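Q: What residues go here?
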């Protein structure tokens, strides 16, 4: 029997107990990347928090199957069905074919996705693999009267729904309505301002690189249709949890619900999980601002990608998080101290079952209570300070890492595998590094340089990195 688990359901606008449709089995769908550019660290924050959700559910005793799409066609530069296909724009920018761009940025995405300790989805499906499924769904929606053809395109008719704005209050409806925004190009083919495209034909974009034959002419699918179809292809007519960033709520997830439930004739998904934005001092992180700050760039700057994961875990997924390198430096120092502390632990006897039970229950309570990851990290610190033997502490570090995925034991082992150092020399090195740190803080750079020279005379080379001072014997 799985443990009680709660998180905030965007659909009900409250924290509620999670109850899967089938025992302990969880079907989960997460919106994947649009592979026209690198995923910035704000995008990756969303996937880190989804990963924590999955691993927390598994820690609580649930069996999770997760499906993710890859958007390699159909996502226009505006979510309101206007502008150019993002992947096509990327191809033009880089003078490559659309599929070359899609493959390059898919590979780049998963490189960063893996680096921060995320578990790969059980199924990853590119949109271009599912054209027959898209066409079938659109045909059924037309037959049922939920869609219409106009100007060569197929549109979903939102006026056929009792409640289109399923995530929104009455006050928000007017603010969210696409048609009232001044910056959105009006589509005169639409019967209603909130209608959205299910299938574009060549009448919309003559130069679209990827096109397929369909009953409505040669064209390509709209963005929203892909998630509904890919989810149903691999998870069936019902899913337990649908994940995404808060910017997906409207119109993307609103439209997914509209077309899926109209197609199926019943409720599709019971729980919706959304992560908030990562901001910098200038506001929300975005690819449109120019240079893209990625996990790979952080790594090039000397940061372990798992430091960024810890940075994200220190904040709640539903709160905006502000990024700065100063804040990341502080987390890097904390991470290194954790690794060093774990490296000092020794297998010194049997695990204390009473302490193990106490801390695992506390940890489970934190992660199953709307993913209180900062509390989970605090419990990790508490376990390392607990009045128990090292074997119990090591057990708890590894137990908690099933969710936190900080690889503390792995990094600690690498640290321990270093050369044997005389205890007196080690104490001298640590003292010298601390004295040098204080000298630099006081802007006494001559003293800091003298301490560096003193270390060199002892055969110790030091290097300043974003994660703190590293040293090795020469």
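A:
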């Amino acid at each position: 029997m799985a443990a009680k688990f709660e998180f905030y359901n965007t659909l009900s606008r409250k924290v509620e107990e999670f109850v899967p449709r089938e025992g302990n089995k969880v079907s989960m769908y997460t919106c994947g990347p649009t592979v026209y550019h690198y995923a910035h660290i704000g995008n990756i924050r969303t996937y880190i928090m989804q990963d924590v959700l999955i691993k927390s559910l598994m820690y609580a005793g649930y069996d999770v199957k997760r499906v993710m799409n890859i958007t390699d066609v159909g996502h226009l530069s505006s979510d309101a069905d206007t502008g150019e296909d993002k992947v096509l724009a990327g191809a033009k920018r880089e003078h490559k074919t659309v599929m070359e761009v899609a493959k390059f940025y898919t590979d780049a995405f998963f490189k960063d996705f893996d680096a921060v300790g995320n578990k790969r989805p059980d199924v990853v499906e590119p949109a271009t693999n599912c054209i027959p499924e898209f066409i079938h769904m659109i045909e059924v929606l037309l037959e049922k009267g939920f869609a219409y053809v106009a100007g060569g395109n197929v549109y979903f008719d939102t006026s056929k729904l009792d409640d289109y704005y399923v995530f929104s209050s009455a006050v928000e409806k007017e603010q969210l309505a696409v048609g009232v925004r001044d910056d959105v190009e009006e589509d005169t083919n639409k019967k209603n301002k909130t209608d959205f495209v299910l299938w574009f034909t060549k009448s919309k974009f003559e130069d679209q690189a990827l096109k397929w034959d369909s009953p409505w002419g040669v064209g390509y699918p709209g963005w929203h249709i892909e998630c509904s179809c890919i989810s149903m292809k691999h998870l069936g007519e019902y899913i337990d949890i649908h994940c995404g960033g808060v910017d997906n709520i409207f119109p993307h997830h609103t439209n997914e619900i509209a077309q899926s439930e109209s197609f199926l004739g019943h409720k599709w998904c019971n729980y919706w999980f959304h992560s908030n934005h990562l901001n910098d001092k200038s506001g929300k992180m975005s690819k449109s601002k120019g240079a893209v700050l990625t996990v790979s760039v952080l790594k090039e700057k000397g940061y372990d990608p798992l430091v960024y994961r810890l940075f994200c875990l220190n904040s709640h997924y539903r709160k905006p998080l502000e990024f700065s390198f100063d804040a990341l430096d502080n987390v890097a120092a904390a991470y290194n101290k954790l690794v060093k502390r774990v490296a000092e632990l020794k297998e010194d006897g049997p695990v204390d079952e009473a302490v193990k039970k106490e801390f695992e229950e506390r940890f489970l309570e934190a992660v199953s209570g709307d993913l209180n990851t900062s509390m989970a990290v605090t419990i990790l610190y508490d376990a390392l300070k607990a009045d128990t033997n090292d074997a119990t502490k090591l057990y708890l570090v590894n137990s908690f890492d099933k969710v936190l995925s900080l690889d503390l034991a792995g990094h600690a082992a690498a640290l321990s595998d270093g050369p044997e150092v005389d205890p007196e020399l080690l104490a001298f090195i640590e003292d010298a590094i601390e004295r040098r740190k204080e000298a630099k803080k006081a802007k006494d750079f001559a003293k800091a340089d003298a301490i560096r020279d003193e270390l060199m005379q002892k055969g110790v080379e030091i290097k300043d990195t974003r994660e703190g001072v590293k040293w090795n014997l020469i």
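A: Context that may help when evaluating the design: The two ends are 56 Å apart (CA to CA). The first helix runs from residue 41 to 59.
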